Amino acid sequence: MRQKAHELLSSGAVGAVLAWEKGELPYDTSPAVFRDAEALDKMVYNGFCGSNLSKYLIEQGKQDEKVLVFLKPCDTYSLNQLLSENRVAREKLHIIGIGCKGKLDVEKLRTQGIKGITGIEENETLKIQTLYGDHELPREDVLLEKCLSCKGKDHKVYDELIGEDLSADTEQGDKYAKVAELEGQTPAERFAFWRGELSKCIRCNACRNTCPSCTCLKCVFDNAHSGVAAKVNATEFEENMFHIIRAFHVAGRCSDCGECSRVCPQGIPIHLLNRKFIKDISGFYGEFQAGETAELNSPLLCYDLEDAEPNIISKREGDN
Amino acid sequence: MQVKDQNFKPLVVSFCCNWCSYAGADLAGSSRLEYPAEVKIIRIPCSCRVDPLFVLRAFQRGADGVIINGCHPGDCHYTSGNYFTRRRMTLLFSMLDYLGIERERTRLEWVSAAEGARFAKVMNEFVGKLHEMGANKRLGDIRCKE
Amino acid sequence: MLVCWCGSNIAGTVDINTVVEASKREPGVVYATDYQYMCAEGGQAMVRRAIEEHSLTGIVVSACSPRMHETTFRKAAAAAGLNPYMVEIANIREHCSWVHKDKEVGTEKAVVLMRAAIAKLNLNTPLFPGESGVIKRALVIGGGIAGIQTALDIADAGYEVDIVEKSPTIGGTMAQLDKTFPTLDCAACILTPKMVDAAQHDKITLYTYSEVDEVSGFVGNFSVKIRQKARCINSKLCNGCGDCIEKCPAKKAKSEFDEGLANRKAIYVPFAQAVPNVPVIDQTQCLKFKTGKCGLCEKVCLPKAINFEQQDEIIEKEYGVIIAATGFRPLSPERYGEYGYGQLPDVITSLEFERLMNAAGPTGGALLRRSNGEKPKSIVFIQCVGSRAEPDKGKSYCSKICCMYTAKHAMLVRDKYPNIDVSVFYIDVRTPGKNFDEFYRRAVEQYGVNYIKGMVGKIAEEDGRLRVQGSDLIEDTQIFVDADLVVLATAVEAQASARPLGTMLTASMDQNNFFSESHAKLRPVESPTAGIFLSGVCQGPKDIPETVAQAGAAAVKALGILSKDKLIGNPCIAGPDELLCNGCASCEKVCPYGAITYADKEINDHGHRTTRHVAEINEAICQGCGACTVTCPSGAMDLKGFTNRQIMAEVDAICR
Amino acid sequence: MCNCEILIPKLGIITDIRDETPDVKTFSVTAPDGGVVFPHMPGQCAMLSIPGVGEAMFSITSSPTNTAFMEYSIKKAGVLTDWLHRAETGQQITVRGPYGNAFPVEGDLKGKDLLFIAGGIGLAPLRSVINYVRANRKNYGKVDIVYGARSADDLVFRKEIESEWDGIDDVNVHLTIDRAQAGWSGNVGFVPAFVKDLGFTKGRTTLVCGPPIMIKFVLAALDEIGFDETKIYTTMELRMKCGIGKCGRCNIGSKYVCKDGPVFRCDELAALPDEY
Amino acid sequence: MLKLSLSRMEELFSRINGERTLYAPIQIGEQTQFTPWVPDAAVQMNRLSTVKSPKDYFFPHIEDIAAFRVQGKEIEILDVRTEAAPFAVFGVRACDAESLNLLDRIFLDDPIDTFYESKRKSGLIITTACFEPEETCFCGVFGIDALSPGGDIATWIVDDTLYWNALTEKGEALTEAVKDLFEETDDMAVKAAQEKAQTVFDKLPFRDLNLDGLTGEVLMKKFNSPEWANLNPSCLSCGTCTFICPTCHCYDIQDFDTGKGIQRFKCWDSCMCSDFTLMAHGNPRTSQLERFRQRYMHKLIYFPDNNDGAYACVGCGRCVQKCPISMNIVKVIKALGVENDV
Asked: Is residue A226 scored above 70 in pLDDT?
């Protein structure tokens, strides 16, 4: 990867490389823009490159130059969605698809009581050195939530694929399992569940800002003239409203990349809101995966004369 | 089941499209058909003008139920508006339900300009149901309560 | 703030004084009063006086439904120099006093409705309807009977009309017909004079052998590119003598006009009465084009009208209105294996049958079998071929005309050849039309046509005849009918070119590729897209009288626009905040009118200039439904007169 | 708990509204029982608010020597100012302040020859100083006021300038407008060029306020003439948010406009990042 | 010094809670957060950093400051302040305790923020020493001794025993009230544990983070550093770092129309927000780079410039752990500090 980036950057074929930069700790990689071939030494691709680079292209694509971007299979769905909404110009991109075995979640290490991490060796079994001794863990125990329902190893848009054959044999978990479980509960139980989760929200907007479908120039919640702007969740209602509207605004456009949940400092399973919409859309209006191609239209931008009436909600879930 | 509070007056915000449902409500009026005064109608050009934000806003401010009324599918003055409404509101209502907000508090109805009687009936039914359920406690804003 | 009593209609259940007093405590209210009948001249005068005396910047009238008197009060406001859109109505009659009996309840609700109206009004801004000019010319797309009739009606009213017809002649499908039901006039006899009228009308320009390439603009100001395909004939020089056709050695092309039942030359006019009477060279058949040799036609043409070098010509013209009259095609029954169409030469379509019966047709009007040229002894007609079918089997709709034309065919056969047995397989016979049922009964009773309620399962050739296997639903038996000719009443299908045209016109289409009308009952000849009208079968199956009636109606609606010098728009339309628009084009996709386009624009955000792709609303096209506003997540798109803030303010006021 | 919480505003009543220009109005505000809502020094600001509409910082246009009422000259620019422009007398508003430092009228300005340079609404904060200086005329040297606006209609306080300032008590006013217009016999041209043309000696202590672009060019012009930047003052009160140096948003470098400003000497500003 | 067996903590907590509200780091789901203590709550003695710092209890995320009733042209101003009820926060770490001293410099400076002052007066901080720091910890860089934390009362948990030492008068007063639970002891066990833990501190990855060269004198140089353009692009402009930071203290004042009146409240603001400096006449910081730079310039240059060299960072490591894209103050210090003198 680095060699390819070096090649394209020094030849002038691209003006910038969007990739990951290694950090100060074994796991703290950051998305970074490289404009200098020398600096590519700091480029890295490992199990902690979970962040989805596609959204950065909105900003990086503004220059009059080509940008080389490395995308994991699931990131390409987001990019397609951005392309379909004219947020990024395809001709400005050189997309290299890279393989992915599923990315790792350092929070999962921490919740297992592993602290003081000073070194991580990545293999099927992770060897973790800490200030307090070494640990070993199967890789699959530490996967990011989003990787538990992997969309597969196919890149949906790319100029070339780099083959270090990292392609994963990822298990297709049932991504709707938790949504279905909640649907099966009583409204009171669901209410309690979501209150518990959403009350943690500190309104940092990380979920929104990282979301490759949230591409408004100014979010309604930031726009003093919108009538709903708020910097904080002053009450439970505002917690609910923010999350309902955020999810609604990306309904039909969300590719389920899972970044929202990954970035939430409070560990709120935000993706369960998006998935609810995805499940409903697929259930009511036919199977739909946003970002499958750049030509797809959100199901909220079209309709069918025979669409279900809203009372389908009651019919579907019985009277609980 | 909670005890029905006889004094409870559920507040209902009823969005009506200008071409069908608002006229239907007018007809209910000119036919002198009664429905509860707690139903307050907001005129909009088309049911597709209803933003989910408006629905939430009503609940925030103390509404106990929100009902959106539009032309019957196929009869939209603007051809397709109510089809978009149908998708949007189905998803929104489903999400509210998912969050544990009682699904009986939201409703989408098709009421034509000729259906004054139906308008009154739907409003009566809706308010009746809200009466059974009691006040909206799950989606109100505490600041807006007295 | 003005409260109307409406006699006792309102005052009976609403305490007017309470409403007036309550309104005085609302923000922005400087004057409040009441009156017996606000809508009466006295009330309106009061409105004007109040505006003038208190320099009001807006008024709320608590009275009857805005559907009743909004216009009245807007006019009164305008008369007093107030922008008419600074008027809000609180509907305290239909939505309040008339639905409640208890005065306390009614009063309380009236106060709330009044508050909501004030809250909205506080956010109103003066609105000004846009104006746009009207180009006094109409474009009719399609030159069949519908297009011709619409064009003639518009032209007769004194406006220019252009007809664009894709085939070399106008006339359309009707020109191919033999007789017409229920009067059995000869189609040509009633159509050709109209064709000639159209050609000779000084307000009508014909563009035959032409297609619409591109449409832009909006009501009053459409700009259209018409592609006039190369005829290889200079129409101005051609005198229609026909010498070229006579000499042309390439004779193997199938005649489109005769549904392929006869051949034509490479240079041809579709039929004798074609308008214009100017031949066309079929470049796929012409030897000059195929081999470079020949050129006989050029040699014999005295006026030197032949021009092999001729290229397609693009004509750009502007129109105030466009009328779609693209008509239909009969569905091809080849996909229905059970009928053997395409394999069995004696299984033909009804339109082919029309040609066979026509005196100017390939057989000179003699009804002969295609297989051996003999006269048939027995004919079976099958109705509903492709109509009223399961979605995957054909068209779900009834094609409407087949019952009648089949009855006509059967009658004509029996009339001309009384010895031929005629059977008709039908599902239902539908004859709702003036003299239609009488016509059908004549076929059965007077002409002895054998109607069998049932469907045909299979047609097979047996000993040179056709064995039609079907069900008789009345007898509930399987039956076999031997026939020499089978005629399939094929469904009416939208032209393949209709949907692309609809896209160009941004006119919405239904699932069957027929143009959608703006309202099924009340606006049946208008497309939802302003300035686009629908004439004839392009909107849905219909017979000739209906087509002509609709063509006239479309003309009248078009004239309604052409006769205006300026179009006054509705100011309650959507508009984007360019600072917020991110160019995602979602709004464009939900707009039923195609009023939204995207353009690269320089945006000045407090001195920061960037060029971005942003939405633009065509104010002349937007109808103000608001679909786009909810689609826009950033709220960049808002609807004047019903802004997000206004609706929220109403919600707030109601829930206070 | 002490009742001194500075974030809780006081009540004021708009007692008079004057049109200055098509988009500027001057509002007189008194405390409910008359008099000023609080005392201030020239150059200080106050936070005005209509609850539910908005809260914004405005310079106090009146001089501290006016103890009957306070004045604010407000240009239509946003939600709150639009609202205020629609208000009528008798409207109550909330006021908190005074905020920020002041022009050193009792310090460095004392005894000096003063030059006021203002553009557009920028005269509003300087008016307080000018009237203070006029009220204590003997404490100061020469006073010249250079004031410009887009057009004659955009000159604020024109009546006061003409009837009370110009030529009275050794105060000279030099007006200019951007483009010539009928009925205007004064100077036409931009303020910076006009300042150069007027040929002031460089010993003047100068107070500048106006749109950022004007300030930039005026400073350049003054530098060209050889003015000492330690004797040039300007004010930037529009940036303030909380007014008390805590909310963290009005900083320019490590200075807080609402606490260390809004009046800055040019040499102080020069040492700060260009984030204003 | 006093000591108490950990097995009796519940008793201690309930005693403290009797007189005042007690907040403690309590496990909820997979996270530890400061929340009101209730009997049998899962108080986390060893989990170092809570997601949010106890800053909330003194400088709440949202706080009403006034209310108004508006009718016609009239406005009624209501003072909604109430005297803060006494409370204590248990389990505060040295870094978070120090952060309050930094906030004092802002809010207790003239004019005093009475909202903060009232809570600071009625709030009591019981700190706990960190014997097992995280790899993200770097409080030592700011001179904070995590093994000898500040606050009103310092505690140490060694083996099964809680050691307790009051540091202030307020601390003494509480100690007096619960003293009967404790036994007197010396500090030998604590000292031994401190020494042992020091070896871990000496191995922390960021122990040598160098702050030299980050002072007000080089303000303009650091402001104009080209490094900002390298660091900034990865930032999502979310407010995570500012909201979990124990020292971030910027706030906004907003009105909410309840329909019955107006509530004016103070709420945390984040310099990452695009409208952080938005004003009627425009916005002096329109680009993300400017906002990103503001945050770190504030913490590392402006704040020390105004506060005797004290940095607005206590090395708690929350931003290192929680930044969604791992862009944090450590990376900024390394890029801008003396090691990379640009």
From this structure: yes
Scan for tokens 């945006």, then name that residue: C603
H or E element: which one contains C108? Answer: helix C103-121
Distance CA B36, CA B11 (A): 10
Beta strands, E only, C325-369? 328-330, 347-349
Q: What residue ranges define each of the domains in chain D, with the CATH number in brackets?
A: 10-99 (2.40.30.10), 114-235 (3.40.50.80)
- Taken as a whole, chain A contains a residue count of 320
Residues of C within 8 A of A215 (CB-CB) are 582, 584
Is A318 a residue whose pLDDT tops 60? no
For residue E148, tell me if it sits in a domain: yes
Q: Which two tokens stand for residue C653?
A: 């006021």
Q: Are the beta carbons of E38 and E103 closer than 8 angstroms?
A: no
Task: Report helix, strand or coil for E247.
Answer: coil
Inspect the interface and report whether the beta carbons of A307 and B83 lie closer than 8 Å: yes
- Interface contact flag, E70 C656, Cβ < 8 Å: no
Within 8 A by CB and 6+ apart from A282, the residues are: A288
By DSSP bridging, strand E183-184 and strand E2-5 are antiparallel
What pLDDT does residue A319 have?
Answer: 42
The ipTM, to two decimals, is: 0.91
Domain count across chain C: 5
CB-based contact D223:D231 (threshold 8 Å): no
Distance between CA C328 and CA C315 in Å, rounded? 25
Backbone φ and ψ of C62, nearest 5°: -90, 110
pLDDT value for D274: 78
pLDDT at residue E338 in the model: 67
Closest to E232 measured CA to CA, from E283, E272, E282: E272
- In this structure, is the dihedral angle defined by the CA atoms of residues A184, A187, A189 and A193, taken in order, positive or negative? positive
Domain ranges, residue E94:
2-201
User: Tell me: the pLDDT tens digits for E236-267?
Assistant: 999 999 999 999 999 999 999 998 899 999 99
Whole-angstrom distance, CA of residue C653 vs CA of residue B61: 9
Partners of A23 on chain E (C-beta within 8 Å) are: 326, 331
Helix C103-121 crosses helix C16-24 at what angle (to 10 degrees)? 30
Q: Tell me how far apart the terminal alpha carbons of chain A are, to the nearest angstrom.
A: 53
Dihedral (CA of D187, D193, D195, D201) sign: negative
Residue C361 Cα distances to C267, C366, C371, E135, angstroms:
19, 9, 17, 95
Under an 8 A CB cutoff, do E71 and C655 touch? no
Helix (H) or strand (E) holding C288: helix C287-291
Query: Could you tell me which chains touch chain A, where touching means 3 or more CB pairs under 8 A?
Result: B, C, E
Q: Kindly list the residues from chain E whose CB atom is less than 8 angstroms away from the CB atom of residue C655.
A: 259
Q: Which of A194, A211, A198, A313 is nearest to A254 (CA)?
A: A211
Q: Classify strands D232-235 and D263-265 as parallel, antiparallel or unpaired.
A: antiparallel
How many Å is the Cα radius of gyration of chain D?
18
How many Å apart are CA D171 and CA D152, to the nearest integer?
Answer: 21
Structural domain tally of chain B?
1
Extract the tokens encoding E151. 């606050």
Angle value at C-alpha C244, between C243 and C247, nearest 5 degrees: 85
Tell whether C599 lies on the interface with A, counting CB pairs under 8 A.
no
pLDDT class of C345 with cuts at 50, 70, 90 = very high
Contact C111, C26 (CB under 8 A): no
Question: What is the rounded CA–CA span in Å between residue C340 and residue C336?
Answer: 7
* Residues whose CB is less than 8 angstroms from the CB of residue C116 and which lie 6 or more positions away in sequence, other chains included: B40, B42, C90, C649, C650, C653, C654
- CB-hemisphere CA count at 13 Å for B65? 32
Task: Tell me how far apart the alpha carbons of residues A261 and A144 are, in angstroms, rounded to a whole number.
Answer: 9
Q: How far is CA A248 from CA B13, B92, B95, in A?
A: 21, 7, 9
Say what the pTM is. 0.83
Say if residue E315 is in the same domain as residue E224.
yes
Is residue C264 domain-shared with residue C342, that is, in the same domain? no
